[in-house]
Structures are given as C-alpha cells and as structure tokens.
From TrEMBL:
<dbReference type="Pfam" id="PF03009">
    <property type="entry name" value="GDPD"/>
</dbReference>
<feature type="domain" description="GP-PDE">
    <location>
        <begin position="1"/>
        <end position="231"/>
    </location>
</feature>
<dbReference type="InterPro" id="IPR017946">
    <property type="entry name" value="PLC-like_Pdiesterase_TIM-brl"/>
</dbReference>
<protein>
    <submittedName>
        <fullName>Glycerophosphodiester phosphodiesterase family protein</fullName>
    </submittedName>
</protein>
<dbReference type="InterPro" id="IPR030395">
    <property type="entry name" value="GP_PDE_dom"/>
</dbReference>
Length: 231
C-alpha cells in the first residue's frame, strides 16, 4: 500500500505549498495529492479551495485573479512565506523521482474552461503521464479526460450518495476515491474483485491506516506520515 501526502506534508507544513511538497518527498511519502485550479489569465495553480481566504493572507476567488496578483499573497507562515504553487513547479519537482502525483481537477464548484486538456497537455509534454493519477468530484471532468486519452488513470472522488457513486465506479470503471469511513471489509473486497483500485482519504489515525493496509487498499491519502509512526 502506498501513502500519499494530502496537499503535501500538510500535517507539518502549509498545505499545497512547494515546501509541503518537497518535505513530503524528503520524509518518504510515496506520492503527493494536490488540487489544480485556473487563474484569470489561464495559469494552472495548486490550492485546495476556490477562494484563497483560508490558505493565504489574501481574499478572493482564484478565477478572478491573475497569477501575478496571486503572487502578492503569502500561502505559508510568517517564518516560512510561500507563494501559490504552480502545477508546472510540482511536476518539475517530481520528474525523475520515484514519487507519484494524485492531481485532483477541482471542478465540482467552478468549471474552469479547458482545465482538463491543459493539465493533460502539460503533463504529457513533460513525459510524466505514468506518474500522475487524475481524480475529481466532478464526473464530467473524468469523462473529458477519458475522451482525451482512454489510457489515463482516473479516480472518482466522493463522500455523499455512496450507493449511487459506488455503482458509477463499478459501471464506468473509475478507481474508487471514497472517504475512508465508507470502506469496510465487504466494500473493499467488492471493489478489489471488480479490478478497481481503492485510494481512500480522510485517514486520521494509525489504526485505520493499518486496517487498510491489511485489507489490500491501494493508496491511503493522509496529512500525517504514518510510515514514521509506530503501528
């Protein structure tokens, strides 16, 4: 089972910053989970929320600001100031390393025109398609990616309407990115039997981490580095 750093090593460093990403790699995470948005001038940037209010000292929607305007704000701490991260920067950091990226296309609230194709093209041009897992809460983004390249690794994120979304994964063959509390032994076995990977998130303690490892889950996405905690 692989362990991905949720928004980087976000238990210790400011989320979705280059510092959090580099420290995740240094500390032994197998991969990095992050979220891509698009600025007013078409730049692909990494941030969890549609607004920068929570994660920076600025306010407003990413879609309403240029990349240059966003760079004014601090996404780190006073001691370790960080500007908003670029998708390209993260790709450059990970290229050639034994580390994967779970790129969430953040389109469940705002549908950024062309973000699926532009993300794909950047990753392809850098020769990194084999290092990237695409995921989204917005299933239409997954369909768009599949139409672009049917060989892509696609995961469907969900935390509501479990039975409905479970069936969607089974019928459309999307890998399962379900919140951890939905997954018991029977559900895990069902998905694995169907040939789907289970990449779960929201894992907060070492006991659940150990449980998922025992049951054959493929990836745990977490803020903490459970590899360094005694089980």
């Amino acid at each position: 089972m692989l362990l991905f750093g949720h928004r980087g090593y976000s238990d210790q460093y400011s989320e979705n910053t280059m510092l959090a990403f580099s420290k995740a790699i240094e500390s032994g995470f197998d991969g990095i989970e992050t979220d891509v948005h698009k600025t007013k001038d078409g730049v692909l940037v990494l941030c969890h929320d549609e607004k920068i209010n929570r994660t920076s000292d600025g306010k407003g929607y990413i879609k309403d600001m240029t990349y240059e305007e966003l760079c004014v704000y601090n996404f780190g701490t006073k001691e370790n100031p960080q500007r908003i991260s670029l998708l390209k920067e993260l790709l450059e950091l990970c290229k050639g390393k034994n580390v994967k990226i779970n790129l969430e296309i953040k389109t469940n609230k705002i549908q950024y025109p062309g973000i699926e194709l532009e993300s794909y093209q950047m990753i392809k041009e850098m020769g990194m398609l084999d290092q990237v897992l695409f995921s989204s809460f917005y299933v239409d983004s997954l369909y768009k990616l599949r139409a672009i390249d049917s060989s892509l690794y696609l995961g469907y994120l969900f935390e509501d309407d479990y039975e409905k979304n479970k069936q969607l994964c089974l019928t459309q063959k999307f890998h399962v990115h379900a919140r951890e509390d939905f997954l018991d032994e029977d559900e895990i076995a069902l998905f694995l039997k169907a040939g789907l990977d289970i990449n779960t998130w929201g894992v907060k303690n070492r006991f659940r981490y150990a449980y998922f490892k025992e049951k054959g889950v493929n990836i745990v996405i977490a803020n903490k580095n459970f590899k360094k905690l005694k089980m």
